[in-house]
Amino acid sequence: MNNLSRSAQMLFLVALKCATSHALLSCNSRSAVGVSCALAVFTKQLPVCLSSNNGQRQKMAAQKTVLITGCSRGIGLALVEEFASKGWQVLATCRSPDRARELAALLKKQHQPAAIALDSADDGSITRALQAVQKLGVSRLDLLFHNAGVAGEDNLLKTTRAELDSTFTTNVSGPMVITQTFLPLLKAASQPKVVFMSTIMSSLEMNMGGGMACYRITKTALNMLVRQFAGDVPGLISMAMHPGWVQTDLGNSVGPAPLSPAASCSGMYAVIESASSAQNGKFIDYQGRQVHW
Ligand SMILES: NC(=O)c1ccc[n+]([C@@H]2O[C@H](COP(=O)([O-])OP(=O)(O)OC[C@H]3O[C@@H](n4cnc5c(N)ncnc54)[C@H](OP(=O)(O)O)[C@@H]3O)[C@@H](O)[C@H]2O)c1
Questions:
Q1: I need a labelling partner for 236 at 20 to 30 A (CA). Which of 17, 57, 228, 279 fits?
Q2: For residues 133 and 185, is the Cβ–Cβ distance under 8 A?
Q3: Is 175 in the pocket of ligand 1 (CB under 6 A)?
């Protein structure tokens, strides 16, 4: 039964209760008055109930929904704040919701659903995240934001096969499987978008310095994944994003980063909001500038 018919039934029951209590008080004409009074309340309230339910439904239909990975800290946490403050429904995911206290407090403050567990490196966790989203009654995703990422080994000569594979699993295979899994929900949106968090460090043309071996290699592979989705899934707007050099655990690990997470996210928000099919398969930074592959 939907909310509307439930509300209507509730009102009818209240009306009947009111009439019955009148009838119990005295078995005379007052009971008839009670019944007619209750029915009047019912018929008067029904249009109000109908219109408020319609309003609520229209609001829910108009509200956009985003799912973001890696929201426990850094840029992911700031993305949650940015999208929530712009009126979006935010499905914030992270590896361990129980330990993500700052995220939990932010979601509560912004009246958003509690964090959903999603580990980019674990297929079972991705399937369970989809089930959790469906349990919330979400049937449409306007935006999927792959933010979760790890740096891995810095030194190429010390990089083991296992280290590269593990970085690849989180940074590349994860976004691929997550996009495949959530594609039916994305397809239900009128203009679905998928943003893959890349980095300027992935650029083949701009890498003259070396270092950050696992990070660069896997993010370059991620860029090709973006191009594959852009070519293989019609109707989906897939973009690689560079957030700038941002003050986070990862950003500050290579030196003092200049950009606040809030400034980066506000820039990315504007770029994503205005993106159309012309941006499909493009590599763009938080200021809307195109980045060289
Ligand atoms: N900061 C920068 O300057 C910069 C520049 C270019 C690109 N980026 C990109 O921006 C994204 C966010 O980076 P950040 O600077 O915010 O880094 P960060 O502070 O290190 O945060 C990384 C986030 O990713 C999550 N994560 C790691 N592995 C995961 C997995 N297997 N499944 C799900 N979540 C996982 C972490 O969760 P836990 O708390 O559970 O570890 C954390 O929430 C990354 O993709 C990064 O490559 C950052």
A1: 57
A2: yes
A3: no
